[in-house]
What we know:
Blueprint: H1 12-56, H2 63-73, E1 82-85, E2 95-105, E3 117-127
Antiparallel strand pairs: 1-2, 2-3
Helix pairs in contact: 1-2
Amino acid sequence: MKTFRNQNGFISIEYLIIFSLIFPFFILMGDFVQWGGKWLNAQVCINDTAQKMGEHGGLLDGTIPYLQQRFADAGLDPAEWDLTISAGPLAKGEEGVIAVSSTYTFKSLKIIGITAQVPLRASATFTSQIWMR
Length: 133
């Protein structure tokens, strides 16, 4: 019985096994980078808006347009995100929460007919810094 080996001593079937185990990770790598980039952009926008809300005492008339503009500037579509925000003006020391959520669809898996989605969530808490009468 003969075994065919290359110069390093590996059989070609071993190469196929290793390739079949590692190849999916290389395919998904680009999607993970894009998913992480969208999450990071959303988190930066949310942190910036939470800081503004803390400085101005919570949700005001200009908060949501400001957040939508921040998302548009970051290359994110505001219509694709669900917004959760604590209501109304807050007295000094009260905490508020702002959060957004969406989903990311893996583009690399569409090639083989699989549709997979992962959640995208970003949130921040803030403390109101405004004295109210």
